[in-house]
Structures are given as C-alpha cells and as structure tokens.
Amino acid sequence: MPQPHRPQPRPPADAAPEPTGAEPTGTEPPGAGTYTAPPAGTAPPTDAAPPGAAPARALDGILVADFSRVLAGPLAAATLADLGAEVIKVERPGTGDDTRAWGPPFVADPPSGEEPPSGEEPAPHEGGAPRRGTAAYFDAANRSKRGLALDLGDPDDAAAARELARRADVLIENFRPGSLAKYGLDHTATRAANPGLVHCTITGFGSGAGARLPGYDFVVQAVGGLMSITGEPGGTPLKAGVALVDVLTAKDATTGILAALRHRDRTGQGQLVEVNLLSSLLGSLVNQASGHLATGRDPGPMGNRHPSIAPYETLACRDGQLLAVAVGNDRQFRELARALGAPELAEDARFARNEDRVQNRTDLVKALERRLASDTPHDWTERLTAVSVPCGPVNTVSEALELAQRLGLAPVTPVGEGRIPQVTSPLRLSGTPVAQPFAPPRLDEHGTALRTWLSGPADHPLPPHV
Fold first, then answer.
1. Helices 155-167 and 447-455 sit at what angle, rounded to 10 degrees?
2. What pLDDT digit, counting tens, does each position of 268-315 carry?
3. pLDDT tens digits, 229-280
4. Tell me, what's the pLDDT at 133?
5. What is the pLDDT of residues 136-162, one digit of tens each?
6. What pLDDT is recorded for position 11?
7. What does each C-alpha distance from 383 to 124, 133, 351, 388, 434 come to in angstroms?
8. What is the DSSP letter of 175?
9. Residues of the chain with confidence (pLDDT) below 70
10. Which SS3 state, helix, strand or coil, does residue 27 take?
11. Are the C-beta atoms of 35 and 436 separated by less than 8 Å?
C-alpha cells in the first residue's frame, strides 16, 4: 500500500556525488554504477530518458528502513539503493554496525564539524594503538544510505523506529526471531501499522527449531557442507575467500523483496519475506547437492577440478604458473589440442569425449601440462582465447579490477574525496540505470534531519539528501 510520504527523486546520474561531512545474524537488538551517456553523435536508445531529463530509477519513490547489521542485510539494502530506493540505515548509538570496527584496514572519516570531547583519545583498535575512521568492510555494504542512530531501549527512539517502519515501503532486519516484539517492530506489529510494508527478516537457520542459533557466515559454510567440498583432496576443509554465504543470502533477500513489491503493486498488500543463511547456501550447492540426491554419496573436495568436466581446472605452465582452463565440450577440447600442437589428443580414445577425459583425468593433465610448460599463462591465454577456448591466468584482486577496466566495464566508481571508491554495481538497465552511489554514512550523520522528519506530519516528504 503506497505510503503518504514520497522520497525525493535522485539527482541526475551525471551529477557529482553528494559530499558527506558477516556475517552474524540473529543477535539481540542494539541498546553503483555510473550511467554513461552514448558517445556524441550517437542516437540514444528508444528507452533512454529525454535529453536533459534525469533518468528514472526502477525503485524511485521506495523507502527502505535498514535495521540490519554486518553483511547480508546491509548488502541487500545497498542493492536496493543502487536501483533508486531511498535507504535509511538504523544503527545503535555509540558503536554502530559491528563492521565499522572490523579492521584493519581503516579509513579516516571525513571531517564532520564535531570534535571529540576535550581530552578524549581516539578509540583504540585491538592492538591498543589509537585509530580514527571506519573499517573498509563497512563501506563495502553501506553505500548510498542515510545514517540514523536509535537506541531501541529508549522509549523515544523506539517510537521513532516504529514511525519509520510505518512510513517505509521495505524493512530489512536480522534480529533473533521474536526479539523485536517488545519494541513493536516484529512483523505482526509492523503489518498492523503498515499493511503495505514488505518486511524482510534474515536469520542464520530459520524461525523454527534453529531460531535461537546465531548465524555467522563462517559457521554456516562449515555446517552447510560448503567447506567439505572446498580444498584439496585429503587436505583441511577450507572456507571461501569472502563471506560467500552472506553475499548469496543478500541476493536471495533482494529477489524476495522485489517479488513482494511487485505483488504489492497488484494488490496493495505487503508481506513477510524470510531468508536464512543455511537455506541460501543449500540452494547454491546446485550440482553438488543434486549429485548427492541422485547417488546418495557425499561429494568431496577436488581442489580446482570439476567432478563432471575435464579439463576444467588450473594447469601448470612455464615456471609452474597457473592457467585456468574451462573446456565445456568436445569441440573446445579439439581446439585446445590443436592450439597446443597436439591434435592427436582429441583422437585418443582416453580423451575423445568428456566422460572419457573425466575418467582419465590424471593422464590428461600430464599430457596437457607437458605442452603448456613451454609458455606463460598470459601467452597461452591469448592463443587459446583466439580459438574460443575459455581460459585465463589466476589474477589478484588488483589484476581483476584492471582487467575489468581494460574491458570497458568501469569496475570502480568514486564517491567523494577521501572516501573509499565503490565497486560498480554489476547491473546495467537501459531504461532505469542504477543510481550514482554516494559515500556510506558516518554514524548518525543524518540523524537530526531524520528525527525532525519522523516527528512531523507523515505526509511531509523525506528531506533532500545533503
């Protein structure tokens, strides 16, 4: 059901960014990309905005109350902001989101115009040395939000939180199931006050028998089976290099929220969207889970190898440098064999078909690496890509960003002087391009204006972001 307020539209995508002065779920409540215009002289696509007009955003007019912390919920809210929603991030006073302290690295906050009390030292980090600023971790999931600090244990702040929920289109939270009821912020209460609200709750293990279990990405990677299939055979089970379960859960939450908003468009009614880390992980095991369900056998770790495709792994080149090769069909293998100067490999009965190559993987790898040893991964990438064999070197993060830049993907977007640039949203929408992001908020950065708005008439628009 549409709410009486309507957030102000975003500025045009080519406007300058506005200046600014993981894993856990289920804890108790606390006390983008740049739209690039076509080159000059190029006719705009038919779905482009008229010349001089600000492009529409897919979620223009949607207000999101982000009560979540750490990664899954905040990342879902940031994605909605990319799509044009106004997002208000609610944090506990004093400390804010846990990830503000998850460093190093830390980056100094821009000046806020407020100095700490006389004689007060900067907060120490774990090593005891003073630090200022916010952890880079926080910035990764909190772009394009306004900051509001509320203590839900304070009656006035709790009332402001309820008023925010009453005015919002979407509410995202990752509190332990049932813990918000005493503040009037559980789904039963928010739905009664705001029938059009899409209320998204994120937990570690659902709202049933697992409701009391705290959900941390690392623990869910372990108990959810992912670590058992990650690593080298016979080696120590390993986690993924990022909080992958939280990221997957954020994408599931975003999908559910968008579906619920579409339902509201038709009916005027909001609904509860529930996601949990364990289910998001199990739904992402895809072929590994399907293989177990088909055979009853547990898959195990295979390093960089694929259980059903070969060669689909890293192979050693000159000086042991690694090349990732992903041959998905027999035609590609024939091209690989020719490029290596060994077309006979494709005629060898051990390697002619994919199932043969999987069965004879050890011999296959020896034959390929013997020939790959003559050159570097970079040189092989050029040769093999030229004949449509999917491959590439094992890049560092900086090299990956440089690759995306060379390919014209504009992977990094600045958000203001002295602030950490943001990784550009992967979404490209021709008619409703993603919003130019602005920097994540300082703790309670917009609190004064937002508290004034929440204490005023409900039909007053959200104040412009400054």
1. 80
2. 999 999 999 999 999 999 999 999 999 999 999 999 999 999 999 999
3. 999 999 999 999 999 999 999 999 999 999 999 999 999 999 999 999 999 9
4. 80
5. 999 999 999 999 999 999 999 999 999
6. 38
7. 53, 47, 21, 9, 36
8. B
9. 1-52, 110-132
10. strand
11. yes
Say which amino acid occupies 370.
Answer: R
- Phi, psi (rounded to 5 degrees) for 355: -65, -30
Nearest to 310 by CA among 353, 372, 340: 353
What are the helix (H) ranges across 277-360? 277-284, 286-295, 330-339, 354-359
Give the catalytic positions in this structure.
246
Neighbours of 124 (CB within 10 A): 10
Give CA–CA dist 462/47, Å, rounded.
29
Tell the residue number behind the tokens 């949990």, with chain if given: 276
175 DSSP β-pair partners: 27
Distances (CA, A) of 108 to 92, 269, 278, 348: 20, 43, 35, 61
402 Cβ neighbours under 8 A, 6+ residues apart = none
Q: Which two tokens stand for residue 428?
A: 């490209």
* Residues 257 and 76: beta-carbon distance below 8 Å: yes
Sign of CA dihedral 438, 439, 441, 445: negative
Question: What does the block give as tokens for 248?
Answer: 């997957």
Q: In what order do the strands lie in the sheet containing 86-91?
A: 146-149, 86-91, 63-66, 170-173, 198-203, 271-276
